[in-house]
Design goal:
With 283 residues, the protein is of the alpha/beta class. The chain is built from 10 helices and 9 strands. The chain folds into 2 domains: 97 residues, no CATH class; 137 residues, Rossmann fold (3-Layer(aba) Sandwich), CATH 3.40.50.
Length: 283
């Protein structure tokens, strides 16, 4: 596929043991962490000439919903498994330390090339996304997208202030000479949207995906986990719609520390769209 991938070894040699393929198990986390787990494990497996098996039956929606398989298009040498396998090397989720050396050395264009292969929405998911877009009368593209990372006492890198996000969008508006920009805003806490709307110039038209249920706002994990599977699945499709809208923004403002920021950095339709307000390298 790309120059960094090594030629796979034979599965069995005359003088050595069978090569063990990889088996990905997922850690608890937000949806973007599941996506990044798949991406990181695939990149690692491809670089080492191995096939990747993915256990996809434990996720925030339900144990019966194959989240990754239903979300992304099939990829060569990736197989979804319904149970644990023997004779494989188990990989952890997104944060498996074995990935770090490879990922930090891969150039941005190679990272995005791999993401283009493994993180493509399925036609079924896109049909559902387009249904949300049509129902909420959202435009097909936006001038600027912004993902606001909520502040947490557990952050190792302090999250930008709301004013910092507004200033970054103002810079993009001036650079592109936009008079009445359309701005899509993605948040995990509705209060962050309200703060941004309060500080944003009135010439900006702000958009977001409005949830069809009042029991889940933004992508709050605690609120999400308390709902039944049907509500969770609807909320999940709405979140994918948010990510799809962000991908189609000409300029994206976010943070590479966050999982959503990493995902958008990898999958934005315009390679130069993503502007990080914290670290500048994928890891």
């Amino acid at each position: 596929m790309t120059s960094w991938i090594r030629v796979p070894r034979k599965l069995r040699s005359e003088d050595g043991p069978r090569v063990r393929n990889y088996f990905l198990t997922l850690e608890d986390g937000d949806f973007a962490s599941y996506y990044l787990s798949l991406f990181n494990a695939y990149a690692f497996a491809a670089a080492n000439g191995r096939e990747l098996n993915v256990y996809d039956r434990s996720n925030p929606v339900s144990v019966s919903y194959p989240l990754l398989k239903e979300t992304f298009e099939p990829v060569d040498k990736v197989t979804y498994a319904s149970e644990m396998m023997s004779g494989v090397t188990v990989l952890g989720g997104q944060s498996d330390p074995r990935y770090a050396g490879l990922l930090t050395q891969m150039p941005p264009d190679v990272l995005r090339s791999v993401a283009d292969r493994v993180l493509q929405w399925t036609p079924t998911m896109m049909n559902r996304v387009n249904g949300v877009i049509a129902a909420q009368k959202l435009p097909p593209t936006f001038d600027i997208g912004i993902h606001i990372r909520s502040r947490s006492r557990f952050d190792t890198i302090r999250a930008p202030t709301t004013a910092t996000y507004v200033a970054a969008v103002e810079d993009a508006v001036r650079t592109r000479k936009l008079k009445t920009p359309t701005v899509f805003v993605l948040v995990s806490d509705p209060a962050d949207f309200m703060d941004f709307a309060r500080l944003a110039p009135k010439t900006w038209t702000l958009f977001q995906v409005s949830p069809n249920t009042t029991t889940i706002r933004g992508s709050n994990v605690g609120s999400f986990n308390r709902q039944n599977s049907a509500i969770k699945l609807n909320a999940y499709v709405e979140h994918v719609t948010e990510l799809y809208c962000m991908q189609n923004c000409a300029t994206i403002v976010g943070t590479l520390v966050s999982n959503v920021g990493k995902f958008l950095y990898l999958t934005a339709k315009s390679p130069l769209a993503f502007q990080s307000l914290d670290v500048q390298k994928y890891s």
